[in-house]
């Protein structure tokens, strides 16, 4: 049950429903997770500063159980996600930052309980 939170200073028009679906599919494939378990939020039009510049940029946070817990895994995920974002948003790599967060099953609630019990 990965959680993806994309924040950007790009306008909302840059993030159509088609883009959000492609983002979901791309990250699901990168993480090896089913698309129907993905949770994606896109926050456009923010005031953002990366590396001292207000130029167009994206900060992406990916939180998941069992697939974001090592440097080796995240290096692979990062390469795939960067490829998608640079292609789809026409941003250079230095205007994209990704944070990976490893979640434990007891940290994710669903259906009135936590994933540990599902």
UniProtKB/TrEMBL annotation:
Pfam family, one: MIF
GO terms under cellular component: cytoplasm; extracellular space
InterPro entries recorded: Macrophage_inhib_fac (IPR001398), Tautomerase/MIF_sf (IPR014347)
EC number: 4.1.1.84
Subcellular location: Cytoplasm
GO molecular function terms noted in the UniProt entry: D-dopachrome decarboxylase activity; phenylpyruvate tautomerase activity
Broad enzyme group: lyase
Transmembrane segments: 46-67
Keywords: Acetylation, Cytoplasm, Lyase, Melanin biosynthesis, Membrane, Transmembrane, Transmembrane helix
Source superkingdom: Eukaryota
GO biological-process terms attached to the record: melanin biosynthetic process
Subunit composition and interactions: Homotrimer.
Stated family: Belongs to the MIF family.
Described function: Tautomerization of D-dopachrome with decarboxylation to give 5,6-dihydroxyindole (DHI).
Designated name of the protein: D-dopachrome decarboxylase
Organism: Lates calcarifer
